[in-house]
Amino acid sequence: MNLTDYMDTWSGYTESVNEAASKRDGKLEKLDGYRGERADREREEITREFNEAVEVAKTEAHAKFNATLKAMKEKADKIDETMVAPTNDMLNALKALEMRTSITAREANSAAKLMEGCDVALDALQDLCTARGGVRVSTRGKSARAKAYDHLHSFNEAAGMLLQWRGGSRFDLMLKRSQERSAHVPSEERTPIGAALVADIRTDSVADFAKEIVGDDASLNDVLRLD
User: For residues 163 and 155, is the Cβ–Cβ distance under 8 A?
Assistant: First the structure.
């Protein structure tokens, strides 16, 4: 099953990273209080071993994620697609929103209800909302195939964020980012925000895990179309 395979890859990667981090921290702890070139060389070696272990886990997980995502796409491709053209009311609503400098969640939800069943209009609405405040539009009104592709995108994006994760909780990583910002660390060198966003996702149940990946707005039945 694709969802189980994806979750197992996620779990396996986090376990490998946590194990490597635990070994690193244990070895570094033994060097507490020691100074000098020899101690510094040992610390560098310990860090190198950790980095190598993470890269091995990352390479393995990347290959597994790709295989599962490919299988998910094959499922999405097989879903019957029904194209619905936008009505005049939908187009008028989009034109009105296009004139706004910002769009609230309430306005987005109201427009989304008007555009239910029309993937083209809902995609255009999402583009507008992204450009004018970043509000996320509900996918419930889309066709089954369009929702499947949206969920596939979420799984693909989540895998990429996880593979940037090198240990730590969301709180720890967000705190680290804040400290890096205060220290004027270049943005491209800071702890990845994506790694922080997925750091606390748990793998206790497939249903709960899938919800965390695609969002509470999605129904489990729609997600299962990728399974």
Answer: no
In eight-state DSSP terms, residue 36 is S
Helix axes 144-162, 37-77, angle to 10 degrees: 170
Q: What percent of the chain has pLDDT above 70?
A: 100
| Amino acid in position 85 | A
Give Cβ neighbours of residue 18 (< 8 Å, ≥ 6 apart). 167
Q: What confidence score (pLDDT) does residue 151 get?
A: 93
User: What pTM does this model have?
Assistant: 0.84
SS3 of the chain: helix, strand, coil, percent, to 5: 70, 0, 30
Contact by Cβ (8 Å): 152, 213: no
pLDDT at 216 over 80: no
Q: Rounded CA gap, 222 and 75, in Å?
A: 12
